[in-house]
């Protein structure tokens, strides 16, 4: 990517919007997108890494005929056969048009007369990026704004170094993809894997806006979705396309939907964390950088489900990479398993969820060992109720913190840690110490509700200790995305300065 260093597209193009007018394709396309001031003089050009013109699908409030290419006519809508897990969504009618070389580019952002920012919310474009990550390739079906945001945060860059070191590590992968009895293919460890180790780093072949999936489904426009995705696959390098087409297929009459239906992953993690609230926060943070997205990761898609997983997914938005991190030590020959469902669901709900979304009946050891009776005294039942309790504690802690009861939040977090240690949840320690540090800092700065006496120096020392532990945990866990470690370091620095200032008073 050649981005002019004098001008960076800010992560939130929306916030930048008042200074921009429109986001247009320059006449020198292919490969160039410009930001133009009012008088239409190009002030900046960016060499874009993706194919140009992007293929776009616009959603308008009143639809006329729909077609996916400038020359072809529309095909009749097909019966919905996509994953039933997308919630229904109030939306306007959809009409689809394909951009042609001569048509103007869809506005990512334009200024209305009132000076307010209006964004082309209902336009989804296909951007294909053949050279992504050493030629693995990536097709994005997102709004132009999200594409610009991804570009702005450097997610599409192949440098700098952290990614390269993980690619090197990837060459000595500690797993193989092989046949697993009763489950098709699966991922099996080929050497010992330590607790908290990143055992796989996978990049998406497809990243698709959740809204695009929902709306094409809701509006009975599955044929448009399939054509857009099919084209996205066609624009990928041959080896990546083959890997995707060879993935296991779910039910449905259409190959594309059958592949997407069981293999797409949300980017908020796999929800296997005991504290699904954390995953939710991560997802919200992700959405601040644009619409929600789902990704198709050809290797991660081979990982089977267990209600008692030994690994979890962690998405790095800055590197667009999905990491698989082990919850506990894994032995050679053991299958790597993640959870497709939130772990705090009762078994019957988990089973329904798996049936609906992935069309299978789970026969993992927890399901076979566990009855719905919580009084069943097996290790599996105990683990289940411990995880349920962890989840409840985390939610209560978040409420306490948001309502200003920082001391209570700290006490709840201490309880949480006792249970989490028994469950071997080391990969969550960075998050844990981070929230603990924040709670101590707030206690030091804001005190307790009702004017209860607080030892602010002690609280500040607590914040400093926990902030240091958060940095340590993130450094130890490592990631292709140094963002978490950097955030933790910045927080530590802030606490350190506050403490020094207080000492100086
Ligand atoms: C995302 S794919 C996982 C990889 C897949 N086994 C393959 O061969 O590519 C999900 C599918 O794997 C199978 N599967 C995953 N976990 C399973 C489990 N615990 N029990 C039975 N089948 C499972 C189901 O057919 C499910 O729809």
From TrEMBL:
GO CC list: nucleus
Matching Pfam families: SET (PF00856)
InterPro entries to which the protein is assigned, alphabetical: SET_dom, SET_dom_sf, SET_domain_protein, TPR-like_helical_dom_sf
Stated name of the protein: SET domain-containing protein
Span of domain SET: 173-341
Keywords from the UniProt entry: Signal
Domain of life: Eukaryota
């Amino acid at each position: 990517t050649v981005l002019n260093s004098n001008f960076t597209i800010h992560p939130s193009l929306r916030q930048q919007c008042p200074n921009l007018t429109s986001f247009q394709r320059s006449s020198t396309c292919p490969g160039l997108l410009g930001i133009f001031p009012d008088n239409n003089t190009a002030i900046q050009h960016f060499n874009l890494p993706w194919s140009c013109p992007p293929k776009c699908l616009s959603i308008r409030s009143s639809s006329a005929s729909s077609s996916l290419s400038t020359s072809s006519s529309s095909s009749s809508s097909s019966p919905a056969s996509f994953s039933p897990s997308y919630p229904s969504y109030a939306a306007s009618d959809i009409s689809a048009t394909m951009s042609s070389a001569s048509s103007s580019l869809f506005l990512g952002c334009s200024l209305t007369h009132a000076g307010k920012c209006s964004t082309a919310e209902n336009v989804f474009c296909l951007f294909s990026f053949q050279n992504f990550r050493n030629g693995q390739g990536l097709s994005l079906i997102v709004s132009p704004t999200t594409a610009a945001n991804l570009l702005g945060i450097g997610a599409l860059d192949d440098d700098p170094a952290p990614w390269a070191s993980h690619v090197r590590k990837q060459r000595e992968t500690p797993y193989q993809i092989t046949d697993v009895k009763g489950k098709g293919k699966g991922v099996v460890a080929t050497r010992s894997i330590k607790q908290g180790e990143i055992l796989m780093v996978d990049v998406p072949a497809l990243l698709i806006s959740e809204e695009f999936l929902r709306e094409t489904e809701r509006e009975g426009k599955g044929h448009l979705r399939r054509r857009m995705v099919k084209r996205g696959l066609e624009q990928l390098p041959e080896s990546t396309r083959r890997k995707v087409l060879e993935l296991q297929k779910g039910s449905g009459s259409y190959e594309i939907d059958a592949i997407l239906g069981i293999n797409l992953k949300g980017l908020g993690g796999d929800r296997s964390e005991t504290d699904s609230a954390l995953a939710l926060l991560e997802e919200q943070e992700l959405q601040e950088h644009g619409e929600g997205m789902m990704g198709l990761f050809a290797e991660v898609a081979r990982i089977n489900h267990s209600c008692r997983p030994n690994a979890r997914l962690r998405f790095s938005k800055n590197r667009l990479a999905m990491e698989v991190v082990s919850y506990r030590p894994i032995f050679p020959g053991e299958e790597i398993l993640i959870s497709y469902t939130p772990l705090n669901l009762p078994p019957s709900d988990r089973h329904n969820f798996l049936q609906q979304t992935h069309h299978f009946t789970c026969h993992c050891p927890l399901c076979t060992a566990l009855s719905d009776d919580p009084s069943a005294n097996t290790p599996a039942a105990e683990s289940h109720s411990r995880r349920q309790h962890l989840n409840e504690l985390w939610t209560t802690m978040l409420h306490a913190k948001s309502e200003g009861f920082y001391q209570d939040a700290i006490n709840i977090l201490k309880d949480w840690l006792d249970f989490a240690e028994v469950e071997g949840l080391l990969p969550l320690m960075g998050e844990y110490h981070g929230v603990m540090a924040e709670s101590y800092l707030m206690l030091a700065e804001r005190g307790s509700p009702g004017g209860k006496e607080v030892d602010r120096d002690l609280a500040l020392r607590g914040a400093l200790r926990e902030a240091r532990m958060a940095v340590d945990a993130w450094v130890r866990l490592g990631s292709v995305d140094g963002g978490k470690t950097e955030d933790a370091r910045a927080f530590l620095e802030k606490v350190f300065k506050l403490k020094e200032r207080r000492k100086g008073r």
